[in-house]
Design a protein that fits this description.
Length: about 190
């Protein structure tokens, strides 16, 4: 049954061997080789096609976002949406002169409490920022009952500046500033007097 490798039966087989040798001398690239292509039906995509499309979309989005970032070249006060400007007041510790409060309300002319003559700032009406350290909760006996005070102190000299009725992270109706704890100018602080 087995034949000699050099023996060929007919001319058709010889022609087939020559054709094979000619094709074998020039191998197809892997992309054109039918065995390497993914077989898909009409309208179907391979995973590599999906990933390629996704990469292209991400690149387009990145280019669009970079273009949007540089749309406004010059920004002026006319471009802003702020209707009216409000004056901010700065207040300092009366002992060391450290900056403690910034507020749109004049804290020295605010209404005062009758019990301790502390200035009462309505937090819902007036913007303010405290540059102070918050301390412990203090309970005080008053004629009407017990009052809770969450005090805040100067960052440098630890002078009590005021208090709130709720902890710093919660909202409170009023912030109270102790009488003579704040000054409107640093030069009025005790540390700067001669």
């Amino acid at each position: 049954m087995y034949l000699d490798k050099t023996a060929v039966d007919n001319a058709a087989e010889l022609k087939e061997i020559e054709n094979f040798k000619e094709k074998g001398s020039k191998p197809k690239p892997k992309i054109e080789d039918e065995n390497w292509k993914a077989r898909t039906g009409d309208g179907e995509l391979t995973l590599s096609d999906l990933k390629k499309r996704q990469r292209e979309e991400l690149n387009e989005q990145m280019e669009e976002s970079q273009q949007k970032r540089f749309k406004i070249v010059n920004f002026t006060s006319e471009d802003s949406h702020v209707v009216g400007e409000k004056k901010l007041f700065s207040y300092y510790c009366s002992i060391c002169g450290e900056h403690c409060i910034s507020s749109e309300a004049n804290c020295l002319t605010l209404p005062r409490r009758k019990t301790d003559k502390a200035a009462a700032l309505d937090e819902a009406k007036h913007f303010h920022k405290k540059y102070a350290n918050f301390g412990e909760k203090i309970l005080l006996r008053r004629k009407s009952g017990v009052e809770k005070q969450y005090r805040f102190y100067c960052r440098q000299c630890r002078q009590p500046l005021g208090y709130r009725s709720n902890p710093p992270k919660e909202t409170s109706k009023f912030t109270y500033f102790f009488d003579k704890a704040l000054v409107s100018e640093q030069s009025k602080a005790i540390a700067f007097r001669k």
